[in-house]
Every structure is written in structure tokens, then in C-alpha cells.
Design goal:
This protein has 6 helices and 13 strands. With about 250 residues, the protein is of the alpha+beta class. The protein folds into 3 domains: about 50 residues, RNA-binding S4 domain (Structural Genomics Hypothetical 15.5 Kd Protein In mrcA-pckA Intergenic Region, Chain A); about 90 residues, 2-Layer Sandwich (Alpha-Beta Plaits); about 100 residues, Alpha-Beta Plaits, CATH 3.30.70.1560. A hairpin with a 2-residue loop joins β1 and β2. α1 packs across α2.
């Protein structure tokens, strides 16, 4: 964890106030004066301010059903941050583990534990993300098998030097899932896509690369954590068992 973030998790200081404190020379790490806010520290380091040992607050973990026209950012832009939906103290000290586009809905995981979120988003961890996708054009039955194989082999995205990691494409012909709370005008041409990486606009670019267009996108699962019956805009804390999935 960055030293300035550790200070914020151990005090009521803001990030800017923590940086000012570091400049003052009052912070010591294992007995040595530390002024670099980006210095990496760990729980077993002895971090003090004016002789007083700092202890970071317990990390927090949440899941949220993101609505359309909101952004996965700590700063409001054209659309508001999803962190406004969390009715918790210091919500904007948290960050999103795996972002969604403004028009994409569904599951987002939110935490202040950087190592945990790294395990969620790093392609090396092979964490599966499941998206329900609505396409402009239906996939012809006679082309479905070849397209499924194409996604398994990897898709060449425009501007990328290598193929995407293997993805699982499933054509949805009949579903028992209740998607009535998903804001999608055209519910035909529905597929499920499972990927293990998160390139910029990846799902949309993958279908564009095969001559189709995404008209609706909804993430319903990350690893073993499912959105389930959490309604749009609702959130809850993750259970200890859910948190342990990415430790």
C-alpha cells in the first residue's frame, strides 16, 4: 500500500493532508524519516507520526448493482460516480475493482484493499467475468459454432498487437433469468460472454471485430460472486467467504 494511503486509513486525514504531513518529516517507517507518499508499506512495518504508532483501519469490501449513466470513478464527470450510491463513511476513499463503461450496468466490486482488487482485475489471476450482451444483429444458427470457436481462439482487436485471451461465448436461446430490471430496449440477439481480462471497451470491441455491435451490456458475475437478486442501485457488504475468494 502507498504510504499516503496508509496514513489516510490510519487517521482522519485526506490524501492531500497526508502528503503535507509527509513533507513535514514527522512520519517514520521502521525508524527512518519517510517523505515519499508513493513509498510501499505493509502491515508489519512500524509506521509512526510524532512517536505515535499508526494502525490502519480494517479494509472494506462491497458489491454494487451499477445503473446506467453512472461512472466507475472517484471523481464525478458528465455522469456521477457510483460511489454516491454507497451510504458508508468515507466512501470516496474506496476504489472500484474492475470498471464498467457509463452505459454498462451490473456487478461492480468496491474496496480500499489494493492487493485484493489486483487479484480481481489481473489477467494472471484468471478471474472470470460474465457479461450478458445484447447485439444489433442476431447470430445465424449456421455461423454460431464457428463464431464460438473464434472467441475461444481469441479475437484480434483493432490497435492491439496480440489476440484477446480465450473467451467463452454462449448463444442464449431461452433463459430462466429474470432480466426485467435491466434497461435494454432490444432483448433479442442475446448472448453470454465470459472473459478473464479487461481491455479498454473490450466486449464492445470484440463484437465489433466480428462485424456486430453491442447495444446492451450487463455484467452479472465476477469469479464466483454473482449479482443475483441485488436490484439496480442497491449494494451490500461482501461476506467473509466472498472476500476470501480473492485473497
Amino acid at each position: 500500500m502507498r504510504l499516503d494511503k496508509f496514513i489516510c486509513k490510519s487517521t482522519e486525514l485526506t490524501r492531500n493532508e497526508a502528503k503535507k504531513l509527509l513533507k513535514s518529516g514527522e512520519v517514520r517507517v521502521n525508524g527512518e524519516v519517510a517523505k515519499n507518499p508513493a513509498m510501499q508499506v505493509h502491515e508489519n512495518n512500524d509506521i509512526t507520526v510524532d512517536g505515535q504508532t499508526l494502525t490502519a483501519r480494517t479494509s472494506r469490501y462491497f458489491m454494487l448493482h451499477k445503473v446506467a449513466d453512472s461512472i466507475c470513478s472517484n471523481v464525478d464527470e458528465i455522469y456521477p460516480s457510483v460511489l454516491h450510491f454507497l451510504d458508508v463513511d468515507r466512501a470516496f476513499d474506496l476504489h472500484i475493482a474492475g470498471r464498467l463503461d457509463a452505459d454498462t450496468t451490473g456487478l461492480v466490486l468496491i474496496t480500499d484493499d489494493g492487493r485484493w482488487s489486483h487479484n480481481v482485475i489481473s489477467p494472471k489471476k484468471d478471474c472470470k467475468k460474465v457479461y450478458r450482451v445484447w447485439l444489433r444483429d442476431a447470430i445465424p444458427t449456421e455461423k454460431a459454432e464457428a463464431l464460438i470457436e473464434h472467441f475461444t481462439q481469441g479475437i484480434q482487436l483493432q490497435g492491439e498487437s496480440s489476440l484477446t485471451r480465450p473467451a467463452v461465448l454462449e448463444i442464449v436461446t431461452d433463459t430462466d433469468n429474470d432480466t426485467s430490471n435491466i434497461n435494454v430496449d432490444n432483448r433479442a440477439n442475446e448472448v453470454l460472454l465470459t472473459i478473464t481480462e479487461g481491455k479498454y471497451h473490450q466486449v464492445k470491441r470484440m463484437f465489433a471485430a466480428v462485424g456486430n455491435r453491442v447495444v446492451g451490456l450487463h455484467r452479472e458475475q465476477i469469479g464466483e460472486i454473482k449479482l443475483a437478486d441485488l436490484s439496480a442501485g442497491e449494494w451490500r457488504e461482501l461476506t467473509a467467504e466472498e472476500v476470501a475468494l480473492f485473497n
